[in-house]
């Protein structure tokens, strides 16, 4: 009986850590980095890219840094998550904060250790990245617009690590990164509307808290229109292989997003909008396969 209880306790703690570090997001980033390396950045064979030890170490550093970022973000967001995400909060709270912090410092130590096997530049790059992940969670995310901006920049930073490794900064890379940045920024603006109650209660200076829902919807609409313009640019100038299929799907989803935004009035409505944007990002990652597929 005691053994079963102990096993259940360990399982709950494992699931709690799984929830805190958002393993599903981390795995998506791993896929995105490998697919970007194979189909866009590298001119080597698929086999050489997949078994490139230095690339593997860079991706490990990126994913562990992001996982530690989620942990420190959870630590600072504890009070507002009680309001905004009560179910997730109960799962995440199975593991106490001191354990989370120890795991956070352990992951960062591992990142620095692994990056030291790559180069001194890698150590500096990931050390700075870890610092800004902490600074964002501790201070920046509570500052009007700066929080959204830094969240979007930090989300695409791991791809710069891959670009620097391959020393490949082509125009197509810049345009794709620009589109990804604005999609993530749109997602962050939408998340602020979804989390309005908790942000207001904990004095977060977000656009909905300061200017209200109406103004926030206007900003979101303008950002969505920017993404639509970027999609047309991608369709006209960068339709490699069957990638145009993703552009069309993303365009349809953004139009649906704008239509739903007009009538959105409560948290469940904003959650739907948020999930539409997440779907665009997920489809975008796996659509990288289409770049080298022709009729």
Molecular structure report:
The chain is mainly alpha-helical and 295 residues long. The chain has 2 domains: 1-142, Tetracycline Repressor, domain 2 (Orthogonal Bundle); 170-295. The protein has 15 helices and no strands. It has helices at 2-20, 23-41, 46-50, 53-76, 78-84, 86-92, 97-116, 120-138, 146-166, 171-194, 196-201, 207-211, 213-237, 244-263, 267-286. It is globular and about 50 Å long. The model has no long low-confidence stretch (mean pLDDT 87).
Keywords:
mainly alpha; Tetracycline Repressor, domain 2; 295 residues; 2 domains
What is the count of DSSP helices, taking H or I runs of 4+ residues? 15
Report the top-level CATH class of the largest domain: Mainly Alpha
Oligomeric organization of the protein chains: single chain
> What proportion of the residues form beta strands (DSSP E)?
under 5%
| CATH topology type of the largest domain | Tetracycline Repressor, domain 2
Q: Evaluate the radius of gyration.
A: 20 Å
Shape: globular
Largest sheet: none
* Sequence stretches where pLDDT stays below 50 over 5 or more residues: none
Distance between the termini: 61 Å
- Summed up, the domain count is 2
- Classification by helices and strands: mainly alpha
CATH architecture label name of the largest domain: Orthogonal Bundle
């Amino acid at each position: 009986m005691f053994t079963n209880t102990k096993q259940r306790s360990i399982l709950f703690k494992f699931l709690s850590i799984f929830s805190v570090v958002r393993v599903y997001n981390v795995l998506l980033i791993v896929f995105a980095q490998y697919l970007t390396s194979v189909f866009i950045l590298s001119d080597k064979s698929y086999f050489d890219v997949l078994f490139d030890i230095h690339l593997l170490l860079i991706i490990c550093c990126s994913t562990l840094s992001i996982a530690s970022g989620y942990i420190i973000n959870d630590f600072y967001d504890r009070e507002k998550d009680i309001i905004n995400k009560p179910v997730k909060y109960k799962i995440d709270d199975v593991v106490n904060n001191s354990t989370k912090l120890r795991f956070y410092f352990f992951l960062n130590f591992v990142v620095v250790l692994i990056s030291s096997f790559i180069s001194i530049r890698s150590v500096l790059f990931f050390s700075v990245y870890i610092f800004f992940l902490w600074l964002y969670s501790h201070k920046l995310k509570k500052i009007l617009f700066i929080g959204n901006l830094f969240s979007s920049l930090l989300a695409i930073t791991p791809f710069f690590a891959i670009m620097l490794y391959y020393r490949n900064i082509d125009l197509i890379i810049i345009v794709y990164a620009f589109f990804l940045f604005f999609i993530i920024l749109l997602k962050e603006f939408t998340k602020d509307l979804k989390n309005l109650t908790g942000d207001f209660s904990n004095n977060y200076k977000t656009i909905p808290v300061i200017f209200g829902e109406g103004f926030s919807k206007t900003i979101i609409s303008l950002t969505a229109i920017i993404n639509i313009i970027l999609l047309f640019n991608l369709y006209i100038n960068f339709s490699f292989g069957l990638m145009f299929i993703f552009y069309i799907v993303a365009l349809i989803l953004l139009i649906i997003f704008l239509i739903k935004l007009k009538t959105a009035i409560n948290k469940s409505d904003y959650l739907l909008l948020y999930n539409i944007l997440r779907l665009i990002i997920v489809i975008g990652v796996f659509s990288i396969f289409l770049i080298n597929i022709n009729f």
